[in-house]
Specification:
Helix content is about 65%, strand content about 0%. The chain is mostly helical. It has a two-stranded antiparallel ribbon. The radius of gyration is 19 Å and the shape is globular. It binds NADP nicotinamide-adenine-dinucleotide phosphate. NADP nicotinamide-adenine-dinucleotide phosphate binds next to helix 7, helix 8 and helix 9.
Length: about 260
């Protein structure tokens, strides 16, 4: 733990502090509904099919992380367990999202260009930070020393979280019996019985797994940004259900059973 904390300089801590501020701002903007990103239940339509928009959002992030890895292959610095498992985790996350967009989600409406490009830029930045932390700032020797129990523990947290995130996406898919169905129903399987956005909860724990594997302050910053954003959005989603879906259970929490 001490190694983890003391290998950072003032600039790293300053960047981390700035990321915490962004996380707080995102929590506020999403939970208050004041500057909400217009997608999901809060989109107002637009010129793009949501499937296309989501592919535009996730694919550049996937490409930048893989290209970053490939650029370092020639330098022979990315063949430790640390680099390889993080490649599987980060690229795997964006690839999973692309595949879910193509084959799992059943979308009801269209999306706008502006929101799509804005979110795509944010994910691009996340992938670039991950590339910089994992592949530039962690050369082979450091990668070898970070290939210990924390890496495997984080990877286990990541895998379980992604499986549970996927499971809850399947529950949402099965609420619509065919692809042309645009209705919203009350999900009542899995953790949906207790919270409005269990899929967000497991997205957050997947990023915690990546941060644990990374042993990087900046990746913990990314974790808090995702957590702040999704926690805020889950509260608005609960409110949205209460306003738009008759009989939505009032006692269901937003994100964490019994807590939030
Ligand atoms: N890291 C981040 O910051 C971040 C942010 C957001 C999302 N994500 C990831 O993306 C995943 C999906 O997020 P999302 O915000 O798009 O989720 P979402 O709004 O819950 O929608 C997921 C899919 O389920 C459908 N759906 C949702 N509620 C439904 C209901 N009550 N009845 C029938 N169908 C319903 C949606 O249809 P409609 O399109 O018609 O609403 C959409 O096709 C998350 O679980 C997470 O893994 C990550």
């Amino acid at each position: 733990m001490s190694n983890f904390l003391f290998r950072y300089d003032t600039a790293d801590w300053g960047t981390f502090g700035f990321m915490l501020l962004i996380a707080g701002a995102l929590y506020y903007s999403e939970s208050s509904g004041r500057f909400q990103l217009a997608y999901g239940k809060f989109r107002q339509g637009g010129k793009l099919s949501t499937r296309t928009a989501m592919l535009i959002i996730y694919t550049p992030a996937l490409i930048v992380y893989i290209l970053g890895y490939m650029a370092n292959m020639g330098l022979n610095t990315v063949y430790t367990a640390y680099h390889i498992l993080l490649l599987i985790a980060v690229a795997g996350h964006f690839l999973k999202r692309d595949l879910e967009v193509l084959f799992v989600h059943r979308y009801s409406r269209t999306m706008g260009w502006r929101t799509t490009l804005f979110i795509a830029l944010l994910y691009f930045l996340v992938a670039f930070i991950a590339h910089s932390e994992h592949q530039i700032k962690t050369p082979r020797l450091l990668g070898e020393s970070l290939s210990g129990p924390a890496l495997y523990f984080g990877f286990t947290v990541y895998l379980i979280s992604q499986a549970l995130n996927f499971y809850h996406h399947l529950i949402l898919r099965n609420l619509r019996k065919d692809p042309t169905d645009a209705g919203y129903r009350i999900p009542d399987r899995g953790l949906f019985r207790y919270v409005t956005c269990p899929h967000y909860l497991f997205e957050i724990t997947a990023w915690a797994g990546i941060a644990l594997m990374s042993r990087s302050l900046a990746m913990w910053g990314v974790f808090w940004i995702m957590a702040g954003y999704l926690a805020g959005r889950s509260r608005q989603t609960y409110k949205w259900y209460r306003e738009h879906v008759p009989d939505y259970p009032e006692n269901r929490r937003a994100l964490i059973p019994g807590l939030l």
